[in-house]
Amino acid sequence: MFRRAILRWPNGSDWGHLATVSDDGGLPQFAGFVQMSDPRVQDLLARIAPRPAGGDMWEAHFTTNDSESAAELIAA
Question: Whole-model pTM?
């Protein structure tokens, strides 16, 4: 399973993209797009503090348990 997931989105955008980092590290791998208004995305963002990622981009890093939840967002 993944150790970490990273959700990134442009400020005010309807869509974000999810990347995962495997247990052995390495570069993040694109996992899919997510709709930012999805209640599951909003629930995840309510539990963590998104941070600026340069320019008008924001990102949120999830722990292992949250990564499993985040991976479910792209399965829909």
Answer: 0.81
In this prediction, residue 66 carries a pLDDT of 60
Nearby residues of 54 by Cβ (< 8 Å), 6 or more positions away: none
Q: Which long-range contacts (CB under 8 A, 24 or more apart) does 36-40 make?
A: 36/9, 38/73, 38/76, 40/69, 40/72, 40/73
Strands 2-10 and 51-52: unpaired
What's the token pair of residue 75? 């399965």
Most distant CA pair in the chain, distance: 33
CB 48 within 8 A of CB 30: no
Q: Which residue has the higher pLDDT, 64 or 46?
A: 46
Q: Name the pLDDT band for 70 (thresholds 50, 70, 90).
A: low
